[in-house]
Amino acid sequence: MKSKLLVWLAMLRGVLRHNLRWMSWNLFLAFIPLALSVWLFRRRDVAQKSTSLLWWLGLIVFIAFLPNAPYILTDIIHLVEDIRRQNSIWVITLIVIPQYILFIFAGFEAYVLSLINLGYYLNRRGWGQWIVWAEIAIHALSAIGIYLGRFLRFNSWDLITNLDTIAGTVLDDLAQKRPLAVMIITFAIVGGLYWLMKSITLAVLLQRSNTKRRRQAALSDQGLKQSR
Question: pLDDT value at position 2?
């Protein structure tokens, strides 16, 4: 029994170490726009003040790095390689697949939360009617970014260091049927998954908010009773 446990632990360590580096890096890139969305859209004073040059620079970086979050969906191709590499169905079922599920969920949820924060900001500025259009535009930009990253191997920082090449490549590929079809399919997948995940996320956040309010109300009632 002990020897089997050691074997399992060795397998677990090997699988985790094999994917840890690139998964950690991709998640780091996915969480950059999430962190920026909190600073750009969730501060209490951001809706009352006029936007500064620093805010606009932050918004540009936010948009440039945002496709890294849904890009994680395409990392599913590595799952096929990992499954082929393993000889044990138990390792695949209990270690490899759960690892990818958590990885992809975390990355895409960062995308969802980032756009929820953007919608919160637009509502506070009185621009709630533009939320859906902003989401559609960002899905389209993300689809282009995912294509550039997955198939042409560009990075977010190439928008600064290699903008002319990226612009020319995008214009050329938009005129071709195959790249355009890939972008359209990617747009549909990202948009559909976003709608589903946003609905679930907002439901969870609403439930937590209601629970917090009930607790505060209960504590308030308890305090009133004690004061009497």
Answer: 57
